[in-house]
Fold:
Amino acid sequence: MIKHREKITKIIFTLSAGISILAVLLICFFLFLNGLPAIFKIGVFNFLLGKTWKPANNIFGLLPMIIGSFYVTGGAIILGVPIGILTAIFLAYFCPNKLYRYLKPAVELLAGIPSVVYGFFGLMVIVPLIRGLFTGNGNSLLAASIILGIMILPTIISISEAAIRAVPRHYYEGALALGASHERSVFFTVVPAAKSGILAGVILGVGRAIGETMAVIMVAGNQAIIPNSLFDGVRTLTANIVLEMGYAADLHREALIGTAVVLFVFILIINLSFSALKRKSNI
Amino acid sequence: MRKRQWLSKFLRWFVYIAAFLTISALLFLIAYILIKGIPHLSLSLFSIHYTSENVSVFPALINTLTMTGISLLIAAPLGIFAAIYLVEYAHQTNRFIKFVRITSETLAGIPSIVFGLFGYLLFVTTFKLGFSLLAGGLTLSVMILPLIMRTTEEALKAVPDSFREGSYGLGAGKLRTIFKIVLPAAIPGILAGIVLSIGRIVGETAALIYTAGTVAQIPASILGSGRTLSVHMFALWNEGLNPNESYATAVLLLLLVILLNFISRKMANRLEKGKQHE
Structure:
């Protein structure tokens, strides 16, 4: 009797573990099944490299959105990565214990704030600021980059901090013993030793930025045109899906699912490189 | 020598400035939302029905609760069982385990809008659930599964092997050891993970717009459509009206998330303290 129960529960546990495999397979299956036919119907080349997105005329060129996603992510990286890595260095080597007790939860809170709240904050503070200081109406590539730059901070900080802390203490002590200052020891021995872990953090940040939807929609302007300047509006892959899915039908709807397929492939590439780097750096 | 000192000073200032920027971004955001939003928190905001004159958040609040309930009811047992399998049963070299780990890492990295489309294609259209709280909850449960799995796994791993050996030594079977000895010791860590996933559910928007829909009322059953707080905020933006109610909703969301983060942290700390006592 007891043996039976042991066996049955083991089967239940095993099946539960299998759910995540099933989920990934189902997601791939449904996205590709619904998205690929449209991509082939439109033509892979036309779909990925077409510069015009006019669903009303059945023209589905995704290039503006692909470039939009890259620009916005690039902007977020330029702003978020230096600040994130330096903050991680601060937390690991410069922060007094008393302060750390408050800063660490603060960084975690930054990760927990809903993206609509970030978007709303951007809309109310950053967009008017850009409109006032520069040209355009403020809904722009720059606004989206700033908001995303803040949003990827916690990801970059926590993974970089873990990577920096994983470097054996004697690297730092050895540098000190050779006469280097605290700052030089940290920057020229510890940080280089943690570089693959830090890079993993940056890659995960890229994944977050490229996949972010709500905050970007609220501040980016969403014109399906390749932007010419930082102050032009921009539409990302994610925004494209949310904005039009509500009323799309037929080929248009399938083209939007095709958009998700493109996004999904980018994310898979990013995830795979993250896992590879993570294994290499043991964090 | 002097040049080197100059470089050290320079680096130190860089680090301080970066940390200052990070923290001030957070504090500014919180302060701004609270200061602008708290004056708009009025009683009429919490009336039972949403009308175009009175943009009540009450239905959204209730829907958020229901959504949390549905998602956790599905994801928590599955995630905890999966973690038990990974820690207590499987050989770490097992190929199946490798796949489970790779796929749960993949799931954790998938953007919420992709989950939303997936939920729309599978639950809303294929299973014919329509826009409903149930379809939304099912979608979210897939989304939070890797988070619950990972936190539970860490909590189980933190239980020392001596607990298990003691239990086996007294003649208990595997199942009894897990449920009577290992799980109770790991409870704070597991709960910390669950509270964290509640935060994810509360803050989620993109995965819900095309699964749970955007109806601003409390549905009669979980097969009806309803918007959660975050979706409510997005819908207010989409309609382009009512900035005051948006501020007020942002305050509610922010306070909820701060509270959840605080609880999760307290629980995780308890687990760590427990470890030190041994």
